[in-house]
Write a structure and sequence with these properties.
The chain has six helices and seven strands, in the order E-H-E-H-E-H-E-H-E-E-H-H-E. With 227 residues, the chain is of the alpha/beta class. It has one domain: Rossmann fold, CATH 3.40.50.10320. A seven-stranded mixed β-sheet has the order 3-2-1-4-5-7-6, sandwiched between helices. Strand 2, helix 2 and strand 3 form a beta-alpha-beta unit. The two termini are 12 Å apart.
């Protein structure tokens, strides 16, 4: 995972800030060992709050670029599909541009959303990513991991598939980078005890880390791996 082998890592998130919340510490670790990290953000992140101005969209993209730079990653790519409405368009229209992204960057490891999240866009992106990353004979993807998004994964009702992690990444040395990246999203980060606060992000990292003997960790569910 975090070896010195030349690798390309892809993180495919529904909205700006999701990539930090579910995988920011791991992405920073990949970058520190020399891996190339490419981020794709599928939806705009603004439209569900009403008609957003061009200035607001530009500002949010600037925040996403700042967040990526604090992790050490390249600026994210954006599909800019309508926020909180991905279930209103044919799934194939979400799959196809993700397939094009996968074909372009050729990642061996892909991070995306947990299927059981409360947010509908997260669920659609999960399904689209798994379809786009079908492990065909010539496919580059070797490992697919889904992460938990604070203020979505934990808010789903009990009758849905719960997030039950089986992979833990040590982010003790990159937790500060994750928090700094989230702080770049000044319109998304909240005051404690909101789950998208700096304190809650650190608390979740400590909780996940204590499960496996690390000071801080990000937790994932392994969807599929070929070795």
């Amino acid at each position: 995972m975090f070896d010195k082998q030349k690798r390309t890592i892809a993180c495919i998130a529904a909205h700006p800030d999701d990539e930090v919340l579910f995988a920011g510490g791991s992405l920073a670790r990949h970058i520190r060992v020399g891996h190339r990290v490419e981020i794709l953000i599928v939806a705009s992140g603004l439209d569900s709050r009403g008609t957003a101005s061009d200035t607001a969209h530009i500002q949010l993209r600037t925040h996403a670029e700042t967040a990526a730079s604090r992790l050490g990653a390249n600026p994210p790519r954006h599909l800019a599909l309508r926020d909180n409405a991905l279930d209103s368009i044919p799934l194939l229209k979400v799959i196809k541009p993700i397939e094009a992204f996968i074909d372009d960057v050729r990642p061996t490891i892909v991070y995306t959303h947990h299927r059981g999240d409360l947010n509908v866009d997260h669920r659609v992106v999960h399904d689209a990513v798994l379809t786009a990353c079908r492990m065909l004979p010539d496919a580059p993807v070797e490992r697919i991991l889904t992460g938990e998004t604070l203020s979505s994964s934990e808010w789903q009702s009990a009758d849905h598939a719960a997030f039950r992690p089986n992979v833990y990444h040590n982010i003790t040395d990159t937790l500060d980078a994750k928090v700094a990246a989230m702080q770049a999203y000044s319109g998304e980060i909240r005051q404690f005890p909101h789950p998208r606060s700096s304190e809650a992000i650190k608390a979740m990292a400590a909780l996940r880390g204590s499960t496996v003997g690390f000071e801080a960790a990000e937790a994932f569910m392994l969807v599929r791996e070929r070795i």
